[in-house]
Amino acid sequence: MNIENHIEELKKCVSEETSILENELMSKHTSFKIGGMADIFVNVKKEDDVKKVLEYSDENQIPLTIIGNGSNLLVKDGGIRGIVLRVDIEEFYLEKKDEEYIVTVGAGVKNGYVAQKLLIEEIEGFEFAAGIPGSIGGAIRMNAGAHGGEMKNIVLETKCIDKKGNIKILSNEEQKFEYRNSIFSTNEYIILSTKLRLNKGIYKEIKSKMDEYSVWRKEHQPLEYPSAGSTFKRGEDFITAKLIDECGLKGYNIGGAEVSTKHAGFVVNKGDAKAKDVLNLTKYISQMIYEKFGKKVELEVQVIGED
């Protein structure tokens, strides 16, 4: 694949707001600060440009990988071949409907930004997501949740596009939300924006919740180190972090990857971790849990790319 030629052709297809980079280190675009190079990295701000990149990829048979803010992502050390498309649509607007508020949010808008905007408008229901790293698109894709709340409880509908360029509007039910999962995990659809259904609240009460959750995060999560958030999903009848702790693995490391001493459910990058360090560590953790408790654990972090 002639990368330079494809970049020049892509530039002719999209607007000036879309940036296109060659041999871009994915460690710059993930919260883990880990990952090899993407052949072509495209950051898209407009829906039309998403469609044009999809069409170009299809017509030229170039592999295409879709990412959001990279907060729940581990990119392997060999990087990613073809095009990496980051959907960074940043629209945000409110609409009052009867006693509810319908909030339209672009896939690229950060959860923290949404929470602050809603606080100013005194709209409640999103407080649980204020501290969840990443963007709205990623939060919907994995049905992110915290403090008793989940995205499935507030999403009205989501606008998305399939790999053929067809725009669809999926209802809450059609998004097939499950624990840390949704229809978007199959990569059949790419999230463009979503509508949230929320209610009027009281500023002081909303801020109090957000502050409480922020303090909890700082006390219980290793925010001082790069990570991809919670590394493993909860089991049906067990809390994975608790089993990791009971295996005595807090502080255990392989290369630059370490089980957090603050929260056993987090694998952190102590500064120079490679993807292979993280994968070897998670494999070891899984083996230890199975040997001691007979439980199989599943990664919550999405792993992509080549070794």
Any idea what the CATH architecture of the largest domain is? 2-Layer Sandwich
- Average pLDDT reading: 96
The description of the largest β-sheet is: 6 strands, antiparallel
Annotation, overall tally of beta strands: 17
Tally of separate domains? 3
Q: Strand-and-helix sequence, N→C? A: HEEHEEEEEHEHEEEEEHHEEEHE
Rg result = 20 Å
State the end-to-end distance: 19 Å
Given the C-alpha coordinates, what overall shape results?
Answer: globular
Residue share in helices? Answer: 25-40%
Oligomer: single chain
Instruction: Count helical runs.
Output: 7
The CATH first-level class of the largest domain comes to Alpha Beta
Residue share in β-strands: 25-35%
Main structural class: alpha+beta
Q: Can you tell me the residue ranges where pLDDT is under 50 for at least 5 consecutive residues?
A: none
CATH topology of the largest domain: Uridine Diphospho-n-acetylenolpyruvylglucosamine Reductase, domain 3
